[in-house]
Amino acid sequence: MKSLLLPSLLFLTFTLNAQSERYSIRAIVMDSTGEALPYATTMLLHPVDSTLITFGRTSEKGILEFKNLKREQYLLKINYVGYIPYQQLVSPPQGNLLDLDTILLKELNKDLMEVVVKTARAPLSIRGDTVEYNASSFKVPPGATVEDLLKRLPGMQVDQEGNIIAHGQAVRRVMVDGKRFFGDDPKAATRNLPAEAINKVQVYDSKTEEARLTGVDDGTREKTMNLELKESHRKGGFGKATVGVGTDKRAQGKVNYNKFDQKNQFALIGLGNNVNQTGLSSDDYQDFRGSQSFNWSGGEFGFGGSWDGYEGIDVNWGGNRERGYSKNWAGGANYNYETKTTKFSTYYYYNQTSQTLDGFTEKENFLDQFSYRSTDQNSRLNKNKNHRTFIRFEKELDSLNTLVVENQMRIGNGLNHYNSVQQYFAQQETPSTHSETRNAKDFDSFLINTSILFNHKFRKAGRSWALSSRFNVNNSGEEDYLFGQTLFYRSTIGLEDSLYVLRQNNETDNLNKQFRIGTMYVEPLSKRIFLETFYNFNVSNTEVERQVFDEVDQGNVPNQDLTRKYGNTFYSNRGGSRLRYTYRGLNWSVGLAFQHFSLNGNFSSLSESQPTRLHRNYYGWIPNFTLSNQFQGNLRLYVSYNNYMRLPSITDLQPVVDYSNPIFIREGNPDLLPTTYHQGYATFGYFNSGSFFNLFIDGQINYRVREVVYAQEVDENLVTYTRPVNMTGGKGALINIRSSIPIVKTKLNLRLNAGYNSNFQLTPINGQDNETVTIGFPTSVGVDFTPSPDFMLYAQGRWSVDRTRYSISSSQNQKINTIVYNAETNIRFPGDFYINGALLYNQYENSRQGIHLDQPLLNLAIYKLLLKNKRAEIRLTAFDLFNKNQGIRVYSSLNFTSREQVQTLGRYFMLSLTYNMRGVTANMRRSFY
What we know:
Helices cover 6% and strands 63% of the residues. The protein contains 8 helices and 49 strands.
């Protein structure tokens, strides 16, 4: 005990001395009439370079208070909307409290504008739910991107995938100068724009697109970020070009160029590489697409809408460094024009990818009475070429009428080659089945999609009418060559071995046409209550002609059973009404809709004299409820219940047998009905704009009616036959709690996350319903440490315990532990040298299978800035320094566990040179808070 006394006394003495060396600041902020100014933004800056030290807000009574400050001089700044920004140099007092008594703010007027100009450039400003950052107050290394800048801003987090969390919520949209320059992918802007181009970063909650068009607030908010550019980057062009050469004949090149002003935006982009960046990343793609990348849904209004599997025109990008080897080329151009009444956007984009994958998969399948093991040694070659165009025109015809027209088109072709050797083991060491497969497919496709939206606002506030339609055609064709040779070993059961050989040539033509039209009318019953009435009609027609030829000694002979013609037509009618109330942050709505769904189909084979016809009708009521409330003090509550439908995919509906894998045979089901999802959601959020502390609690439950699942039948030869069927009873739930706690403002932030998720699904296996229950407990802790522009560290640990239970075979129950550590750092050294490191450590453990995997992945780079204004960068990077990227994936599913390993790009070194093109010099215009 005595041994602890002296250290305790020394620690207490040190603590008291440390406290005596600190002080607090207190004041009351008022206007000239003596009224207190609540929630004014208060900041302490370094007096030399105006670096932000700490910040806060005044209390409801206008009290300003900063505690536990180092005994140094500070520049005190106070901002309040409608008043002249206040600043004062403060020095440490004799004691522990500096009482500034009363600080009076003067109202803003024209005569005092020059004073505003001199004092307005504060690091941040808080106005209601909008937080505005002055980018120049947060230092980042030269050549840094907007993403690097965001990591320095209080209340912001950016993970290794580039996802942005602002004030506890995911950022859904990034604007540039108030325009959707980079579409709905936030990472596009943040990873491609240079930090030096940004004047201000504004974060706020925006309304949905439907609320913007109709003028009725639906209570739903999307966290949005606006990047205000410097004047120098609004006039002239800027961009970046990178070339790199590496070991093992690795090379890459990439260039992008942007030029825009207040009305025009033009962008070019191109790349080529053999380092597994398959085509453009989503970031680069949205970078050149431009502000009009928002796509109207083309006819869906109201709630309870169906999803028909149409995915529009997207990009087969990947940026995946984990699987196989690929060579990639891509390029495109984009032009946008925007005024107050007119928005026009168009782009052309081309990409080409060639990818090889050589892998080995080991799988364990289990049935009600036994389990079996399989291995698969395979190789794949995939080549794709795509041309894409897009045009969007939005015109405000007058103050009451708006017209939006969109057109998208895609032309593509390619090939897929697949070779495989599979072996199946039925509870023994020697294989019971040996199968060899060779498939070669050539394909081409054409898609065109046009949509029109017209919105009319009446002179009566809140009254509006909208009409929208969409028409698209998707035509595709393919030629397949299939070879399969399967040997069944039966000598162990006293029978002769049997060999089955399949040689087929298939030709398939697929034509899909879809038309949608929808309308919605909003009538204000009072200033706070609105009635929405909507109707949607959808018709989709698909025609498939599949010719199958068996290859025999005499030549190709038509297969009477598999050669088929198939056609179906979907009809959907959905109409309903919703009553909405909105007033001072409180929004609630309740609605009811009626859905009618009809399917008419016919299919036939050469062996059938008459086609088989089917007709299905489905009727149902769709209730809907939402409630949201924005309380004082940045408290927000949102509760909703939704009911929506999802149509079966065209592939699942086609009554075609797929023999491309002789051991795993698939067949469609034309009798499938749409799946109905019942979903309840609730979220509670709190954000303290003074400290940037936040806490969010989310919960969700769902129940699935007529869910499409894949029934399996496994015969005595271990051949699996699968067919989609409808089953009711699937359900899921999740709870997530997350918080961000600033330990030292602007320098050290702690992130915490804990959750629970579960999923229950039914799957028929050999006539018995298998109940698969999966439960997970994800947890994570992360820190953001940014003490200075010369050193940044972002680290996180994620832990997850997942349990899977199977009703047909409890002995196969799984318990999986997954641990992921990741860290990223950037360090500046004298002479403008930098070191950047990114570590990802994965640990996977499945005790039942005896699997324990450790995979440390480290990328390390050293780079130096060159030339005048540091426009160039030379970088040496080591990718996968430990050479541990083995392309291993382990996972569990409905009734199997699998371990896959793919030969992939491992360790290599690359020397690259980057040149940054900056905006031309221009006279800076004045900005005011």
